[in-house]
Amino acid sequence: MCNLIQKYNIPGPRYTSYPTVPFWDIHSFSGKKWEATVKKSFSESNAKEGISLYIHLPFCESMCTFCGCHKRITKRHDVEIPYIRTLLKEWSLYLELFDERPIIKELHLGGGTPTFFSPENLQMLINGLFRRADRAEDYEFSFEGHPNNTTKEHLQALYDVGFRRVSYGVQDYNETVQKAIHRVQSFENVKNVTDWAREIGYTSISHDIIFGLPHQTLEHVLETIEKTQSLMPDRLAFYSYAHVPWLKGNGQRGYKDSDLPSAEEKRAQYESGKMELAKAGYTEIGMDHFALETDGLYQSMQNGKLHRNFMGYTASKTQLMVGLGASSISDSWYGFAQNVKSLEEYQHLVEHNIIPIFRGHILTDEDIVIRKHILNLMCQLETLWFGEPMQFKALPVVLERLREMKDDGLLEMTPYQLRITQKGRPFVRNICMAFDLKLHEKTPETRLFSMTI
Ligand SMILES: C[S@@+](CC[C@H](N)C(=O)[O-])C[C@H]1O[C@@H](n2cnc3c(N)ncnc32)[C@H](O)[C@@H]1O
Ligand code: SF4
């Protein structure tokens, strides 16, 4: 395994979209084209499956130095109301594109820190969104909570407006690691917020833990997993630390590259962590995610409904996902668009009735076919190209690229199908990269992606 890690540990995308953001064709993209794809997707899918909403709430009170998310650090809570007003106004700009009342299937509050906002303000936001929208029968509402500032009141207020899923950022319980990432957070806090959510009636509680953090050892990871097991969250994200210090404003500093575990140490953390999670009854879902058999994510994997988008893995697919808020990305299936990142610019554009996107990509027919293959691999660990729609011109080149990985036992292939083996699971990103025509057309000159392992 060590040799394989050395061989395949290269920078690579996490494929929450295809084409990945750095390969979007921003020159032929326009706001008008984006709106046309939204209209088309909405009329094709709203009545059938509903739509998804992702809402980015970017504020955090304190900067965790490992964090790659888009955030604004502030202790001033007077930013809450103006931001919510802007979100609701942005929503009204999308409502103008729709020819009927939207049916919301999935709603996710991400960040930053959604629980930076007061419970009353979060309720105001949700009620505002549903003034001109309905819920799907089997709707799923979820939010990201910071264990240090999620209160019983937050949990109750969001439960009252329909939330049943919450994910908490845990990362690692070791003090040295917590100090290095500037995020001191006790087990007691995590236990409290987990217990409260259960008492209130949340049906899916998730914890995010990370391996590969500065000063983190195998023992730290195993201790974190042991503590996590004692709380038995329904789901777990077991992320590989993405080291992307070159990305502007993400604040990954305060430690040196030499403070990070080596690729072999990191892989040992992943492999041992995975074994412990399996012993505790968790099944690996796609990439990075684990769930108990009672959780919806496990069930959706079993019945082939697992989907992946900019929110990560989701239990069902909607064709249209509208992202509201600074830096949010929307996905109309036929196109992607990203909102401006600066809060001031975001507010300015929305105030002037402009959907605040600054870049995007309209998918070609070939992009859509490749996107389906990559989704299949990320969600089902297999894909088929038998039959017309899943064929594409460059398929023979892709198959040639896969040959070495096949020889290394990472995948099995028939003339019309590819299946990732157990041995190949850690290399899913590498296997998807073989399908990524854009990446091979133009190898980036600068570092864009974190390492695959
Ligand atoms: C927006 S944060 C979670 C909510 C809340 N702000 C908190 O910190 O608890 C989303 C998650 O992204 C993950 N994350 C952020 N930066 C990461 C990085 N560089 N590598 C891997 N995972 C990262 C963390 O596990 C984090 O819990
Ligand atoms: S991990 Fe969460 S709280 Fe920390 S900076 Fe990132 S978004 Fe904010």
In words, what does this structure look like?
It is a single chain. Helix content is 38%, strand content 21%. Helix 3 runs parallel beside helix 4. It is built from 15 helices and 19 strands. The chain is α/β, with parallel strands linked by helices and 453 residues long. It has a nine-stranded mixed sheet with strand order 9-10-8-7-6-5-4-1-13, sandwiched between helices. A three-stranded antiparallel sheet has the order 14-15-16, covered by helices on one side. The protein has a three-stranded antiparallel sheet with strand order 17-19-18. It binds S-adenosylmethionine and iron/sulfur cluster. S-adenosylmethionine binds next to strand 4, strand 6 and strand 7.
Which helices and strands appear, and what pairs or packs with what?
Blueprint: H1 2-8, H2 31-49, E1 51-57, E2 59-60, E3 72-73, H3 80-95, E4 103-111, H4 119-129, E5 134-145, H5 152-160, E6 163-171, H6 175-180, H7 187-200, E7 204-211, H8 218-231, E8 235-240, H9 263-279, E9 283-285, E10 289-291, H10 296-302, E11 307-309, E12 312-314, E13 321-324, E14 329-331, E15 335-339, H11 343-351, E16 357-362, H12 365-380, E17 382-384, H13 395-407, E18 411-414, E19 417-420, H14 428-435, H15 437-441
Parallel strand pairs: 1-4, 1-13, 2-3, 4-5, 5-6, 6-7, 7-8
Antiparallel strand pairs: 8-10, 9-10, 11-12, 14-15, 15-16, 17-19, 18-19
Helix pairs in contact: 3-4, 3-11, 4-5, 5-7, 8-9, 12-14
The structure holds S-adenosylmethionine and iron/sulfur cluster.
